């Protein structure tokens, strides 16, 4: 859920998933991107630094695919 939420709060609306994609991610029928490849995806807003750090600590390196 954290991965999907982080994708939904990206700075650029064009990079955010649609609601149907979010539903498929949460149902497990669509893989959720493990890494956010562009660190500027959250913009330079410092409010997201804590979220970004928490997310990076929670996701083990090398994991992939949707988790149930």
How would you portray this structure in words?
The structure is a single chain. The chain has 68 residues and is mainly alpha-helical. The chain has one domain (2-58). Helices cover 38% and strands 0% of the residues. The protein is built from 3 helices and no strands. The model has no long low-confidence stretch (mean pLDDT 75).
Short key terms for the protein model shown above:
68 residues; 3 helices; flat
Strand content: under 5%
Q: What share of residues is helical?
A: 25-40%
The low-pLDDT segments are: none
Number of helices: 3
Query: Cα distance, first to last residue?
Result: 10 Å
Structure class = mainly alpha
Q: Give the number of DSSP strands.
A: 0
Shape: flat
Major beta sheet, specifics? none
| N-to-C series of helices and strands | HHH
- The whole-angstrom Rg is 12 Å
Mean pLDDT over the residues: 75
Q: Helix and strand layout, with pairings?
A:
Elements: H1 2-8, H2 19-27, H3 49-58
Please sum up the structure shown:
This protein is mainly α and 68 residues long.
């Amino acid at each position: 859920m954290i991965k999907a939420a982080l994708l939904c709060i990206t700075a650029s609306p064009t990079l955010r998933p649609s609601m149907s994609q979010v539903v498929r991610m949460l149902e497990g029928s669509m893989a959720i991107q493990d890494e956010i490849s562009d660190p500027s995806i959250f913009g330079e807003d410092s409010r997201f630094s804590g979220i970004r750090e928490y997310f990076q600590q929670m996701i083990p390196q090398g994991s992939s695919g949707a988790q149930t």
